[in-house]
Amino acid sequence: MQYKFIRSIQFFLIFCLCVFTAVKSNACLEDKIYIKAYSGVVVFSLELAKTLSEKQKGLMGRQKLNERSGMLFLYDKPHQVAFWMKNTIIPLDIIFISSSGRISYIHHNAKPFSTKSISGGLDVRAVLEINGGMSKLEGIRVGDTVRHPFFSHFDPIWPCDFKD
């Protein structure tokens, strides 16, 4: 009985070490974004939209988006950005992010196929699209901060630690 208890503790400690190492090593990868939300840190796997063509297509025509996934649109300089949902099949939360990595605006549950313009303000450096309703479900709000290598060039509020 005592042997099983000791093995259980060993297994638990090894598991915790593996989880901690995995989280720490993924802290600043291009295909992940971390959001410091009211409920804690939320992680999404990413596709990046860097080129004009990738930005124009976005998530149009997609039948679904995995629950913990999103598309991050990156811009060379801060400016006014507007999105629409033409040819987009799934509802999306559209999260507008400033150069410092602060969420400046969230448009919740953008309506599929809508041609209504959705603007995020004047100082937008990146936009994150995730499944509609996910930001409310996870407690993500305006003012929360994100962590991603892209923001490292702009004096971010929550910088990457490249020593990880």
Could you explain how this protein is built, in words?
The chain has 164 residues and is of the alpha+beta class. It has 3 helices and 9 strands; from the N terminus they run αββαββββββαβ. It has helices at residues 2-25, 52-57, 134-138, and strands at residues 32-37, 40-49, 69-79, 82-83, 92-97, 103-110, 118-119, 124-131, 145-147. A 7-stranded mixed sheet has the order 6-5-8-3-2-1-9. Strands 4-7 form a two-stranded antiparallel ribbon. Helix 2 links the parallel strand 2 and strand 3. The longest helix has 24 residues, at 2-25.
- Strands, count: 9
Shape: globular
- Specify Rg, calculated over alpha carbons: 18 Å
In percent, how much strand structure appears in the residues? Answer: 25-35%
- Our count of helices gives 3
Distance between the termini: 39 Å
Largest sheet features? 7 strands, mixed
Arithmetic mean pLDDT: 87
Question: Could you name the ranges where pLDDT drops below 50 across 5 or more consecutive residues?
Answer: 15-23
Series of secondary-structure elements, N-terminal to C-terminal: HEEHEEEEEEHE
How is the largest sheet built, in terms of strand order? 6-5-8-3-2-1-9
Judged by helices, strands and strand pairing, the structural class is alpha+beta
Question: How are the elements arranged and paired?
Answer:
Layout: H1 2-25, E1 32-37, E2 40-49, H2 52-57, E3 69-79, E4 82-83, E5 92-97, E6 103-110, E7 118-119, E8 124-131, H3 134-138, E9 145-147
Parallel strand pairs: 2-3
Antiparallel strand pairs: 1-2, 1-9, 3-8, 4-7, 5-6, 5-8
Compact summary:
The chain has 164 residues and is of the alpha+beta class. The chain is built from three helices and nine strands, in the order αββαββββββαβ.
